[in-house]
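User: two proteins, same treatment. go.

Assistant:
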Amino acid sequence: MKMNIFLIASVFAALSCSPTEPVTQQPQEPADPEPQPSERVLLAPGSLACSMTDAGLLLTWEDNSNREEGYIVVRQVGDGEPENIFIDANSTSYTDTGVDKGHYVYTVMSYYGMDRSDPASCEYENYSAPSVSVGNPETSWYMVSVPVILDDDGGLECSVGICWSEDGEPTLEDNVYEFRGEVSESAGCYGNVTGMAEGETYTVRAWAKNAEGTVYSSSVSVQPGSHPEPFYPEWQEIDTYDLPSSVRLYSTSTDITGRHVNAWYAVADMSAGDVELRTMKASSLKTPSQFVEEDMAGENVCVIVNGGYFDSTPQSFSYVLDRGVQQAANIKTLTRTFSYYVTRGAFGVSRDGKPSIRWIYNSGDTPWTYGRPLPVVDGENTLTPTAFYPEQSSDWDVYSAIGGAPVILRDGKICFDYLTTASGKYKTNHELLQNDIFGPSVRPPRTAIGYTAEGNIVLMVVDGRNAGGSQGVTLDELARLMAGVGCTDALNLDGGGSTAMCVTPSAVLLNSPSDGSQRKVMSFVSFVSK
């Protein structure tokens, strides 16, 4: 045991007595701390600006956000729906390659999930003066019609029309027609001009105007067509009936444009003061003879004809005013290609027998009356009549009046034609007559009323559909017949099987109705002895 202890001690002593060297300790690097996430910050982009480049409209901004998911660019053109465009995080630009004419608003914001920064916005406007061109004009006896194309509206609302002059290049300082209604870019309209002097040559240009300026098309030359001459067939006076001297009756059996025609007319000298024009509506459908017998008993009827349009319900579609009392209104709207407001013609006389023709729209108890029709065209833009359009409505001094359509004579001229639009609709069928009434080869029986320069009133009927061998007349041929007996202004009434003329209180039928007998109708026009 002792030896063991010694050895241990000796070894310990040896270890303790051996020489030592200093020990240098190496410093240790401190351990990196765990990374802490930076704060998420969504701030509005800074210094947002836009500029046009070759590539498109460049939007630039400063990235003021931290840890955003990305950016949203909201693009809105005019009043259109906004469009959201999502951009990568840390972006500072966006190029819009689809910029055209118009007003652009851009709103830029950073986002994360459903969170959004405050927005930054900028605007860009790209407008110019418009561009317009003109097509080949068409002419008729009534008007010159010039096709106009708005090639470019410049991004702004435009006024469009034509101007014309007899001397040099026309401008808006010369004669001007402005198209009413919306004209879309690259769409066409027609500049329809009436009243140009027959035989004169005019220079015409289309024009377009917006807030950026006024431009003109190239010019074209036009010459109005020749107005048709009146027809002067040989009329035979019918003197076999007991009529006052102020009412005279005539008939003819003749050829017109190569077709046989039978026609009758009565003319009343209103200045004599012994004859009154009555315009009346029946309580139910009746023939003219039946109406005289049942509704005009005791009155000295000289001549009676059918009146305005109606249906079988029965309902009158035409204005009727009798001795100051409105009995029926003109129809307000008609459905053709679209639903249209419509003004239709009416013939009236004042209390002292002075005749006149107006276009009317029944807006209420008192109709608006105009010296021109609302220029609606089937298949084209709809228009709305007002107290100021198609012109300023004026008081119409009438005691009795009857509606019809269309007006066929105005100031001695036929006031329509058969020029058509690209879709084949008649440009001057403003009163929206059906194709069995209005057209260059449509010849049903006709009834018309008109007046002369002296104020005499004319009632005329023309047989058609081969009734009695009569082949009928077109509306322009009817106008030429009315002009031939002295009318300066005239209105077409309901025709076809409705056409009938009866004379004297016993209501003797003069013509041959195409139905084989008198048709029951809704309204009537008559000369009555006072």
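Protein 2:
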Amino acid sequence: MYHTWLAQRNVIRRLSMEFIARHSELIPTETCDALVALFRDADKRKVTAPGRTGVHVDKKRKDSTDLHSAKVPEKLREKYSTTIEDYFKRLAEAHRAYTERFTELQYPKTFEHGVYSFNIQRYYPEGQAYHAWHYENAHPDVAHRVLAWMTYLNSVEQGGETEFLHQALKVKPEQGLTLIWPAGFTHTHRGLPHKDGLKYIITGWFEYAPRGRRA
């Protein structure tokens, strides 16, 4: 099982100080490449859109092109169903490892964490990035977000790091590297611009929802 493999490889690092899980070998290259292909297929069908912060497009804050899961056409869902299923199966194992490390997240038992959407984002070099410092549950409408997650779908040589403000930490984009971190203000972060090529990520949240609800 993936979970046993995760524990044996000790892929959760420095959690007691940062509360940021980093899984470097969780998502295989072929899965990352297939998710990029999904984005490109969707882009050809013109169902991608400029990245938003809340309900607004503000390129001074966030400059990207996004594919929200709700916009993925049914034919593409079918074409990439194996890829999507594999990705979220592996992500679930990382989440399980996180909540076993921090058992407080397992309560109350009336509720469970679910993933109900995802967002694939593309950034062009020399300027595009999520420029603004932000955290993931900063509005009453999204207060149910508990943990954020993200996987870099390709490696970036220069720049493009995810910078965490209070941890004084910059994480370099490496294909397959997956992060999980708390959604609150303690983990205020931003994305930095990069020099060359395209940058792709997939991201979303583990959210509270009544037990039994399914994505």
